[in-house]
Amino acid sequence: MKKLFTIAVIATTLLSSCATSKCDYMVVPYDKSTGKISYTYSESIQGLSKNDLYNKLNIWITKTYKNPKSVIQYSDKESGLIVTKSAADVKIADRFGYVTIYGSLIFTIQLNCKDGKYRAIITDFYHIGDKNDDYGSIHELEKGQSKYNYNCVIRSADIEAKQLIESLRKFINTPEQSF
Question: Which residues constitute the signal peptide according to the record (predicted)?
Fold first, then answer.
């Protein structure tokens, strides 16, 4: 009986450690003025005017989203500003490694450009659950939520923001093909 109990304890510990290792605690960037999770990337691009960069940003949005008109919330060519409201699935692995979708992250992307420079700010992350698991604004998530789910939602936000920034960076730095 002792052996069976010991095996059960070890198995439970191993399964629990497998689950938490997929969504360990992580540090994400916060905007000091708002207290919100916020990813900022800016880059100087020699030889591109504000209009060139604005057009490239719009093309990137078109290539990134299935329905770009539905994500663009504000667009002003004169000021070089585009604001989108975007969404991504939150994926969580259970104790056995099966990945399930655990709602959606809604977030804002603010794109600014001027002659020779552009900036992307990804912020205002909000979680909408599949059932009654809406966590709301994820910068307030820690209160009363399971640490594992909290870490997975934060990790999903981190992965999505970094992938979008990398995609944008690559697109902006790819020379236009003439035909």
Answer: 1-21
Report yes or no on 179 lying in a domain: no
Alpha helices in the chain (DSSP H): 2-22, 50-64, 68-71, 147-173
Task: Please state the pTM of the whole predicted model.
Answer: 0.78
Q: Range of 10's domain?
A: 2-173
What residues have CB less than 8 Å from 137, skipping those under 6 apart?
36, 124, 125, 126, 127
Domain total of the chain:
1
Residue 176's pLDDT band, with cuts at 50, 70 and 90, is confident
Within a domain: 148:
yes
CATH of the domain at 81: 3.30.530.80
Residue type, 163: Q
The pLDDT tens digits of the residues spanning 76-90 come to 999 999 999 999 888
Q: In this prediction, what percent of the chain has a pLDDT beyond 70?
A: 71
Domain assignment present for residue 178? The answer is no
Measured between alpha carbons, how far is 103 from 134 in angstroms, rounded to an integer? 8
- Token digits of residue 6: 């010991």
